[in-house]
Amino acid sequence: MIRQKSFENEKPTLFLVPTPIGNLSEMTPRAIDVLKSVDVIACEDTRTSGQLLKHFDIHSRLIAYQNFNEEASAHGIINLLMQGQNVALISDAGYPLINDPGQKVVTEATAKGFNVVPLSGCNAMLNGLVASGLIAQPFIFVGFLPQGSGDRKRKLGEYKNYPMTLVFYEAPHRIEKMMKSLLEVFGDRRCCIARELTKVHEEFLRGTVSELIPELDGLKGEMVVIVEGNTDDYSKDVDSDLILEMLRESQALGMTASDAVKDIAKKTGIPKNTIYRIVHQCNN
Ligand code: SAM
């Protein structure tokens, strides 16, 4: 057990600092203060972040934290913390770690007992979700889907039965293929594409997936896709044999029936009540 009282110790700190996803006025005063105060700022791309730091007159030492070599970069940052330096992690835009580098260093820094302190701020997923008009919670953040058609559809298949709202990131040159895969695997659900958030060309396309597809030609910019969860009555679609098999396996591993049901619900997205109903029907 490691307990972190963020501001009541002298340990070096790794700050997780979000940066604007478009509108520079969303840079918070606290983010500027922290970035000015730390010994080192670790970023994805020194040219991109250099411009941001110049705009806010921030002169702390800037180093690159590279996604393709995250392990080595994480060690480098941990070494800085071990030397007593305070480090801020930023990404090109939004939150570090959210479809951006940072997971390894945060995992290591927390395991080693350094302070890891997050700042509040910009993130495309949350902006898109709350303005989508779809149910905002519970939700699942998926991020980018695989690029290959087969892998993309397989991944969507894993989420097909989830009753919660799903949030995806997508690039403009892949949005049409992605939406067609959504239609094929999920059916024609309600959906929202939130584009160019916080920028002058911010736009929301709200409708069903089939209504949005004809509007995609030439659609540019950064995009978040928010899709309604599965609203079907599961009991008619669910593979009862599979559920019972999963239940038997979990119980063979020593789980109680109620823990097994919770675990299956988590893995499949099928509501617990539906699983209980299947189990009772099969036992009677
Ligand atoms: N770390 C970022 C965050 O916290 O949102 C996400 C970085 S990820 C590499 C980039 C993707 O985020 C884009 O392809 C797009 O899907 C989404 N995104 C970033 N900025 C956006 C914006 N202003 N409007 C809509 N989507 C955006």
Per-chain topology:
Layout lengths: L12 E4 L12 H9 L2 E4 L2 H10 L5 E4 L5 H13 L4 E3 L13 H9 L3 E4 L5 H8 L7 E6 L4 H11 L5 E6 L4 H12 L3 E6 L7 E6 H4 L10 E5 L12 H13 L4 H12 L3 H12 L1
Parallel strand pairs: 1-4, 1-5, 2-3, 2-4, 6-7
Antiparallel strand pairs: 7-10, 8-9, 8-10
Bound molecules: S-adenosylmethionine (SAM).
The site of S-adenosylmethionine has 24 residues, from helix 5, strand 7, strand 8 and strand 10.
Question: Would you write up a description of this structure?
Answer:
The chain is of the alpha/beta class and 284 residues long. It has 3 domains: 110 residues, Tetrapyrrole methylase, N-terminal domain (Cobalt-precorrin-4 Transmethylase, domain 1, 3-Layer(aba) Sandwich); 107 residues, 2-Layer Sandwich (Methyltransferase, Cobalt-precorrin-4 Transmethylase, Domain 2), CATH 3.30.950.10; 48 residues. It contains 11 helices and 10 strands. The strands form 2 sheets. It has a 5-stranded parallel beta sheet, sandwiched between helices. A 5-stranded mixed beta sheet has the order 6-7-10-8-9. Helix 3 packs parallel to helix 4 and helix 6 crosses helix 7. The longest helix is centred in the N-terminal third of the chain and has 13 residues. The protein starts with 12 loop residues before the first strand and ends with a helix. The structure holds S-adenosylmethionine (SAM). S-adenosylmethionine binds next to helix 5, strand 7, strand 8 and strand 10. The site of S-adenosylmethionine has 24 residues, from helix 5, strand 7, strand 8 and strand 10.
